[in-house]
Amino acid sequence: MSHWMTVTLRCWVAFIAFTNFGAAFRCFTEDNFVRSKVFGIDSEPWKSNEGPILERMYGYWSFINGIILASCFFFIEEKKILCLSVCVIVLYLCFFGIEGYLYKTLSVHGPTIYPCVLSGLTLLWLLASLKYHPSNRTKEEIDENEVLRKQFHFKSISRKIQ
C-alpha cells in the first residue's frame, strides 16, 4: 500500500471504530436506543421483564467491533488484523441485511442507512487494501550491490588499478 492510502485508511477505520464506540455508549446509557433508532418497532417479542436486553447485546457487539477496528487502526500493516476487520464488517452488514430483508424488523431511515453505508465503504476500502498489501508481492532477494551496479553504469575500478 502506498503511504497516502495507509494514512487515510487508518483515519477512516479510526472514525468507524469511534462510531461503534459511540453506538455502544448510547446503547448502555439510553434504554430505548436500538428499538427506536434502528429497529423502529414496538412489538411484544422485543420487550423483556429483565430490562433492555436488545440494547445491551447490540452495545456489547458494537463495543467489540470498535475494539477490533481500533486494533486495525493501530496494526494496519498486519494482514490478519485486516482480514478480521473485513469479517467483522461483513457480519455487521449481514446482520442488517437479514433483519431488514428476511425478518422485516428494520425501519429504513437515517440511523439505519448511515452505518450500513459507512460499513459498506469501509469494506470496499479494506478489500482494496488487502489486494495491494505488501505481503502479496513476491519477495525477491537481490544483492543491493548488484542493484547499484545496474543503476550506475560505472566500469570497475579494480581493472584500471591492475
UniProtKB/TrEMBL annotation:
This is Ergosterol biosynthetic protein 28. It is found in: Endoplasmic reticulum membrane. Belongs to the ERG28 family. InterPro entries: Erg28. Keywords: Endoplasmic reticulum, Lipid biosynthesis, Lipid metabolism, Membrane, Signal, Steroid biosynthesis, Steroid metabolism, Sterol biosynthesis, Sterol metabolism, Transmembrane, Transmembrane helix. One of its GO terms (biological process) is sterol biosynthetic process. The keyword Membrane applies. One of its GO terms (cellular component) is endoplasmic reticulum membrane. GO terms for molecular function: protein-macromolecule adaptor activity. Residues 1-24 form the signal peptide. The chain crosses the membrane at residues 58-76, 81-100, 112-130. It comes from Argiope bruennichi (Wasp spider).
